[in-house]
Design a protein that fits this description.
Number of strands: 0
Largest sheet: none
CATH topology of the largest domain: N-utilizing Substance Protein B Homolog, Chain A
Radius of gyration: 15 Å
Distance between the termini: 32 Å
Oligomer: single chain
Strand content: under 5%
Shape: globular
Number of domains: 2
Helix content: 55-70%
Order of helices and strands: HHHHHHH
């Protein structure tokens, strides 16, 4: 799958995570509604691979959101997850899930994509906020300073 298709897949995944987060609807219903309606129309023609990628990201990030939210909370000083902008929170969930579960994708690519999504869909400071939090968590995980499943991570 080419870079553009992966980008569109991430964009679709962010939109679905955001919808599930705000609506409280089951993630499977959100996925079905997203692709059944015209919600994905402006993303262009998503290939079957890009759609499968988006669905894998959404399901995985949603399934592991307690653990990921714990990592975000521990990695973002002075910010409670529920007080973060919904776009920022869901971009971080998406990026951290991908960092944890998609080892074939370089961390720099994941972080660059997260920043771009935050800039496009978030507020004025979203790109810098997402970059700082996600990169800090990535570094702390890599150094062993922050451990998955540690008390306080929600795992």
């Amino acid at each position: 799958m080419d870079v553009q298709m992966r980008h569109r897949g991430r964009e679709a995944a962010l939109r679905m995570l955001y919808q599930a987060d705000l609506s409280g609807d089951p993630v499977e219903e959100v996925i079905s509604a997203f692709f059944a309606g015209d919600l994905a129309e402006d993303l262009g023609d998503l290939s079957p691979e890009a759609r499968a990628f988006a669905e894998r990201l959404v399901r995985g990030a949603w399934r592991r959101r307690d653990e990921i939210d714990g990592l975000i909370a521990r990695g973002s000083a002075h910010w409670r997850i529920e007080r973060m902008a919904a776009v920022d929170r869901n971009v971080l969930r998406l990026a951290l899930y991908e960092l944890l579960e998609e080892p074939a994708t370089p961390a720099a690519v994941i972080l660059d994509e997260a920043v771009e999504l935050a800039k496009r869909y978030g507020g004025e400071e979203s790109g810098a906020f997402v970059n700082g939090v996600a990169d800090g968590i990535r570094r702390r995980l890599a150094s062993g300073d922050l451990v998955r499943g540690e008390p306080g991570t929600g795992a």
